Amino acid sequence: MDKLKKTADLLLDISSLLMVSGANTNRINLSLTRFATTLNCQAYSMVTHKTLVLTVTDNETEATFTRVKKIPKYQINFSTISSISRASWSALSEDWTIAQIEKELQTIKSQGRYPRAIVLIAVSLAGAGFCNIFKGDYLNMLVAFISTLLGLYILQTAHNHKINGNIATFLASFSASFIASLGVSYSLGSHPQAALATSVLFLVPGVPLINSFTDLLDNNILNGMVRFTNGAMTFLSIALGLFITMLIFQLN
Amino acid sequence: MEEAIIKVSELSIWSGIAAVGFGILFNIPRKTILVVFFLGLAAGLVKFFLIDLNINIVLSTLVAASFVGILSSPLAHKVHHPPVVFSIPAVIPMIPGYYAYETVLSIMSFTFMEKDPQKRMELMASIFFNGFTTIFILIAITIGVSLPLLLSRKETVKKNDGK
């Protein structure tokens, strides 16, 4: 029983880590199956946005154990997804024990993210790149860079203060578009509107929307709808911030 | 012609940079940064080249996103990272930000500012054209990038059964 309890806890930990890192439902089930096969048991799970339910059955004794786990705050992390995927393959081919998997999971959890300053600069450069794609000149790209920098800074600060995600998105969208609108009202560069259009793009919920689509195609309809709604809420928050800026600056 | 090539390459390089920027936001593994850059650049080349040939932007996006989706499966085996890690950041630069912006702007003018009926008709047309283009491009991106991944997944499952 103790072994089953440990297995269930471990598998729940892995699935919740995958869920918050931005994996789709199929990937979570696949990883669960791989790890459960390694540990000589079977896992049946119910994955929802906020909670995980998991039952493990021992292949030999047929004893079962069920646990529920609340999913922590979402933060996309593709390194985690990648490491867990690789670990699941090694575990399967090298017949890892529970202790080995636990140790690997601890290593994966302790992997850091990119430093805040690097993220800020990289995403702002991405904003400038977007501006170039939308036919902005170098002055517009500079405006897009600065507004993305400020917007992302505010978003990160809001996340650190554990402010509601949609409100954080709204604040970031409003401040980024506000800075870019200054460029429009002083008509900086050849195409100032391009800078305004790109200033909020770093907020676009690309991962939830793509995951939503793959979940729907996989017949994980409920999860797909939840992810879609989540993405739509983010879109609404972005649009609201942009709306208010446009009202203030009377753009048309 | 030469001018077009320079323009397309410049846009594609910025697409690659945008892809890497978003990749870093999503915390991709360090070793995949270069892959993401070149995948984003390649997607940009395909898309802007097709647009240069006067092909509709929705269709161009679909082709470019499928290109990323198809390429990411063999790449995943080569660099030993799951395909989502570099396919999602690579398609992010194709997000139709400008169309979305025009849609929001037209809705704003239509609802709060414009009084002239003729101009309101034009705004209606703008809302529908830009709004639906935005939606269709978003659908093209998601279908393009996820369908090849879904189709290629059979192999992974088979290997798993073998154990």
Layout of helices and strands:
The complex is a heterodimer of chains A (252) and B (163).
Chain A (H helix, E strand, L loop, with lengths): L1 H20 L3 H14 L2 E7 L3 E8 L5 E7 L7 H17 L3 H13 L5 H18 L4 H23 L4 H21 L6 H8 L6 H12 L3 H29 L3
Antiparallel strand pairs in A: 1-2, 2-3
Helix pairs in contact in A: 1-2, 1-3, 1-4, 2-3, 3-4, 5-6, 5-8, 6-7, 6-8, 7-8, 7-10, 9-10
Chain B lengths: L1 H24 L7 H20 L4 H23 L4 H8 L5 H17 L3 H46 L1
Helix pairs in contact in B: 1-2, 1-4, 2-3, 2-4, 3-4, 3-6, 5-6
Protein described:
The complex is a heterodimer of chains A (252) and B (163). Chain A is mostly helical and 252 residues long. Chain A folds into two domains: 2-110, no CATH class; 116-249, no CATH class. Helix content of chain A is 69%, strand content 9%. Chain A is built from ten helices and three strands; from the N terminus they run H-H-E-E-E-H-H-H-H-H-H-H-H. In chain A, strands 1-2-3 form a three-stranded antiparallel sheet, with helices on one face. The relative contact order of chain A is 0.11. The longest helix of chain B has 46 residues, at 117-162. In chain B, helix 1 crosses helix 4. Chain B is built from six helices and no strands. Chain B has a domain at 2-95 and 144-162. Chains A and B meet through helix 2, helix 3, helix 5, helix 8 and helix 9 of A and helix 1, helix 4, helix 5 and helix 6 of B. Chain B: Keywords: Cell inner membrane, Cell membrane, Membrane, Transmembrane, Transmembrane helix. Chain B: Belongs to the ThrE exporter (TC 2.A.79) family. Chain B: Residues 13-149 form the Threonine/Serine exporter ThrE domain. Chain B: It is a multi-pass membrane protein.
